What we know:
This protein is of the alpha+beta class. The chain has helices at about 5-15, 20-25, 25-30, 35-45, 60-75, 75-95, 105-115, 230-265, 270-290, 300-335, 335-345, 355-365, and strands spanning about 120, 135-140, 145-155, 160-170, 175-185, 190-195, 205-215, 220-225. α5 (about 60-75) packs antiparallel against α9.
Amino acid sequence: MKFLQRERAALEEAMPGLDQQLADHSLMDLERAGGPGLAAFTEAGGPALLVPAEHGGSGASLLTAVRVQRAIGARSPSLAVATTMHHFSVASLVEAAAMTNGLEWMLLAAIAKDRLLLASGFAEGRTGQGILSPNLTARTEGEKVWLSGSKKPCSLARSMNLLTASVALPGPDGTPQLAIALIPAEAPGVSVRPFWGSPILAGAESDEVVLEDVEVPAELLVRTGVTNDGRLDHLQTVGFVWFELLMTASYLGAASALVERTLANTKVDAAVRAEAATALEAAVLAVEGLAASTEPIGQDALASALICRYAAQDAINRVLGLTIEALGGMAFISSADIAYLNSACRALAFHPPSRARMAAPLVDALAGDPLRIP
């Protein structure tokens, strides 16, 4: 049971050679804006991870995906965060396409074949709010659709091939109908503005994507047939469970980089090394247990995913305290890696929904009420 062996084996099987390529670069090189990580991920076939096998992808399970993201996060937190947003978009598209009988699977096949990177213009999760709806407005004339608005921060803003976004369009009877738009990055009216001012996770390219009256080609508009009812919430719930577990695994990977350094340092007391590894692995096992569940994804799974995520935040904070003190001042002074990982790991708390915001809804859900994300 070598530390990270299982995760790196999963990454090697899914994207041969990527782990070694990342290991050949310094952490600071991988984490800078424009670093080599995204190109290596794309070249290794990473965009196809969640595309079903019958459409040319790897068809990875949620369990495999969380192991892959942890392995990537241990090499490059920025790459793990950025690619989580790609996988979230693909998972949402797979779920939406399963509700239709159209040609949407051709889009998934293109993602796998052409190794396309998808940025997410979805807003993360408000049950009953429309669905994953960012600050975009739609203008329609017959079958033609134009979108305007912006998404910030938007990971993969500068490397994306497509921006995915949800829009509400008039259905056949006039009622709102969910559609998922795939917008080419080179489409007229699409631009990127600087937004991310921190050096932490700069490699995730989380800038602002702006749409100014961008026409969406009919073949890149997936009309799901889902209206503003319970099925709408189901589509959002599935995507949100994937998002929470993959993002949590990514940050557990970043914390794993510190634990790995601590385990390798024989000057650190064995009890401290074991405590750090145990705290981290317990959080990992919780995430993997939910990811491996065969129960259909629904409200209970979403509540469990949030509980796993908040428990992981606590575990990461504990691990940071143990490892940074154990590695010592000279390790902190001699390399930027320790301070960088300390800051990067804490960013899990910034992803929505916050722990404070979800406290009352989780208490209500544990009492048997439907889970709501305010």
